[in-house]
Amino acid sequence: MAPDATKILLVEDEKPIRDAVAAYLEREAYWVRGVGDGQSAIEEFERHSFDLVILDLMLPKLSGERVCRAIRDTSDVPIIMLTAKGEVEDRIIGLELGADDYLIKPFSPRELVARVRALLRRARTETDQAIETLDFGDLVIDISGHRVMVHGEEIDLTASEFKLLTTLARYPGRVYTRMELVEKVLGYDFEGYERTIDSHVKNLRAKLGDDPRNPRWLFTVHGVGYRFDASDKSEEDSGDSK
Ligand code: CA
Question: What is the pTM of this model?
Answer without folding.
Answer: 0.54
